[in-house]
# Entry
Amino acid sequence: MKRDFQRRVRTLGLAILLASCVMGHKKVDYPLIETFNMQTFDIACVELADTATVLTVSVDARFAYHNRICIDSGSYIQADGIKYRLTGAKGITPDSLFNLPESGNVTFTLLFEPLPEDTESFDFIGLSHEGDIRLYGIDLTGKQSFDVPEGVPAELLKVDRETSVPDPVFKTGMTTLRIHFLYYRPELWKSVNLYVNTIFGEQQSYENIPIDSVTATATLSFLQCGTVNTSMALGYMSGIGGVYSAPGEEVDVYVDLRLFGYFLLQRRHEEDWCGKPSPFQYVYASGTYANLNAVENVLGSDFPSFNMPLYSDSFADYRMTSAEYAAHVAETYKALADSIERSNLPSLEKEMAQLTLRQQAFQAMSESDRMRLNNYHTVHGSWDMPATALVPMEPEDAKIICTLFDLNDPKLLMGRDMLYYTGGLCRNRKFDWAALAGIGQGLVKDLGEVAGFPGKAAKIALTDSDFARLKAMESPFYLEAFTRMQDEAKAKLAAAEANARVMDTPDVSNEQLFDALIAPYRGKVVLVDFWNTWCAPCRASIKAAEPLKSGELKSDSLVWLYIADESSPLVTYKQMVSEIQGVHYRLTKAQCDYVCDKFGIRAIPSYVLVDKAGKYGLRNDLRDHWTMRRVLRDELEK
# Structure
């Protein structure tokens, strides 16, 4: 009742708001918007009058209570390369901070110089010291949905949903992804991050791949072993789709960046502000898996989800016994599998749903303790579950998963949650699944056999004994794959050695180590950054700090000192440090553990600040870069 009342109030307020738009030649309510950089902003009404262009801006920041916004008087709209300046506002004062109400919902009106009456679309650039607001491609023609994008080859527009899921390919080769960004805006994105999910349960990260501002294309070539799924991310936006590729292919990927405008349409629908948007395909890709990629990259389908809610608060009960939990997983799987089978999904989507469900069921069983811990946290508000509170999963109970479906089916590499399956087989190995299920050959046994090999290859640590095991395997694929992986690691290490500035660790006791590291810089300010290559927040923080070193914090009296440990793969580490200005040390695990214990460091990134007098202490408030800049400036001025 309360929610319905709130909706009626919102609808009434919206009607009053729209009625308040000044009369003019053209008026568009909730225009289609191509893309943006802040999804909390929407345009409720645009009116083109003789004397002004009037924008009614709607802000929905319900998940950012007590946030604030500021619209600079230099804000403008733009059409056909011409800027039209801000001339007035109602409900907000330009150049002044506006505190949002607790609901996060507010509307205000902005007036700009008049656009020509025949304008078909324009951009809104709301300047602000809190972060610019950019809404691009605001349509004035009355479109209600996005059409098929231009620039996509005709053959990629064909989709067959009544076929089967293709098989994975067990080969090795250099794959090239050419990613074409349709409706690209260089003001929003300069680079793209790609994450390659492999059949060995690993995720390879390729970050900050530059986007050519002229061609709106980014290119990545990488060694691919077996079929992979590569997910893409742009800046502050997380996922923008994923593509399957076969080894050795050159794949053209087309990403329709109106995807973000479609998110806005979906939000409007949730608020009952407009009709439900039509399904929208946002990624097209060539190659072996072109059809599968077309089917998998569609938003707004009417088909229900059949996923196991693995990480919901109530999927498991921590008080379940081993047998009870196993039965719960089996019953949940059977019910969902039956629902999929009885659904009206097209055959390809039905098979993908079944494969994905099986991957999730396997994850539920192989990560049984983690699932129940999640429930314990919800009930008790703590992750510190006593050992006596959890009955460990017994192998005989876990084995029930092998009776539900063929655990050895290679197509389990093709579902949407491939890492759930491969992770349990070769990364988070709670059980020896081949032995448990009595599987003597095939995928389950093979992936178990090479568990840990990707990490060893990355560290150039595969031994003659390892290669002998690979040669003895039935499939030659694994020997070729890991031979090429280690050879590639050697080549990358040789290339990185020339530019990697890694200092020799002082030959002192662990107790003396930290003082020895900072001793050469007495009289200077030293920022000690504890990080590792696998830590995404660490990488993001380092990237944000890099411009400061040649900018406002450029000083011979400031030393940036970076400490990582051996958990950072040597090749990746040396490649990364060549791009990071500063002094670098790679400590042993024992050395790093001692130094971290000295300062009480339990998570990274963490920072120790050393002043000019040599005094130091943990300063994790410097994780905030505004604070970091202010503190370092203050220390340099002392």
About this structure: Confidence is low (pLDDT under 50) at residues 1-23. The CA atoms of residues 310 and 364 lie 7 Å apart. DSSP finds 19 helices and 26 strands in the chain.
